[in-house]
Design a protein that fits this description.
Elements (H helix, E strand, L loop, with lengths): L1 E5 L3 E6 L4 E4 L1 H12 L5 E9 L2 H10 L5 E7 L5 E6 L5 E7 L10 H8 L3 E6 L4 H8 L6 E6 L8 H7 L5 E5 L5 H14 L2 E5 L5 E5 L2 E5 L13 H13 L5 H13 L12
Helix pairs in contact: 1-7, 7-8
């Protein structure tokens, strides 16, 4: 199958150390997907980077990854996510500079790849809503999975309901205490017969498949160092099983296992 990952590839900038790591929701998902999906599934990235040192880092990090890259090199800055890590390993996304992603559009080659995908995976957040609208206007033949990345701080149900009809699987990272948002997502899943997956950090995850509800515990870890990219890892683990026929409980358990593999260190994945 062809898994097409569309969205952001960039740099994670850690404060106060100034450490720079290759990152971005789409990049993180694709790296984990390449490890978790069968070898004969093809993993693609559709994105862009700048013509700066950040773009060099992104492209060098993807070299030899086994991912088929369709990454435009545009004049300007590569996207940068500035991150602060708390002593408990939780992170704050301090500032996001979308750089050249602000002006990125899909050419005909990218549109054909997206249209022919067996699984289309994309994030949406405030700075790329326009690009996401453009993506969702492209008809696809396969499953569509979307990470609504802003819901932890800004649950935009207007955006969700505008696009949910075209989405098969939606992922959300939410605080376990936000029962109002979780309940609204449960109602939406039932009403529109969609699969909605909610990750809750240490509280595990919940899935709403139409009227059916599932819960899974978080996988144990020795120490939480950095939760950056844990949701991306969970989604890759979940979808790698879901797309090949596993039941939802098994998908959730595997997603939790993959997420746990990244939070014991700085950065969203280990080097190959």
């Amino acid at each position: 199958m062809d898994v097409v990952c569309v969205g952001d590839c960039g740099i994670d900038l850690y404060l106060p150390s100034g450490l720079r790591r290759f990152g971005g929701i789409t990049a993180n998902f694709a790296r984990h997907a390449r490890r978790e999906f069968p070898d004969d599934d093809r993993i693609h990235i559709v994105s862009c980077v700048g013509d700066d040192a950040g773009g060099d880092l992104v492209l060098s990090s993807l070299a030899g990854s086994g991912i088929e890259c369709h990454i435009d090199r545009l004049h300007g800055r590569t996207p940068v996510q500035t991150i602060e890590i708390h002593p408990d390993g939780e992170k704050d996304f301090v500032h996001y500079d979308e750089g050249v992603l602000r002006d990125f559009h899909f050419d005909e080659v990218a549109r054909r790849l997206i249209a022919g995908s067996d699984l289309l995976v994309a994030p949406v957040y405030l700075q790329i809503v326009g690009l996401f609208d453009e993506l969702m206007a492209i008809p696809t033949k396969g499953l569509v999975s979307v990470d609504f990345a802003d819901f932890l701080v800004d649950p935009d149900f207007h955006l969700l309901e505008r696009h949910l009809g075209s989405i098969d699987i939606a992922f959300f990272g939410i605080s376990a205490d936000d029962t109002e948002t979780i309940d609204r997502l449960r109602v939406l899943a039932d009403r529109q017969k969609k699969l909605i997956v909610v990750t809750l950090g240490p509280a595990g995850s919940r899935s709403f498949a139409g009227s059916r509800h599932y819960a899974s515990r978080a996988a144990p870890v020795d120490a939480i160092v950095d939760t950056t990219g844990a949701g991306d890892a969970y989604a890759a683990g979940f979808l790698s099983r879901y797309c090949h026929g596993a039941n939802i409980e098994a998908c959730m358990q595997h997603g939790a296992k993959v997420a746990a593999s990244v939070i014991g260190r700085i950065g969203s994945f280990t080097a190959d």
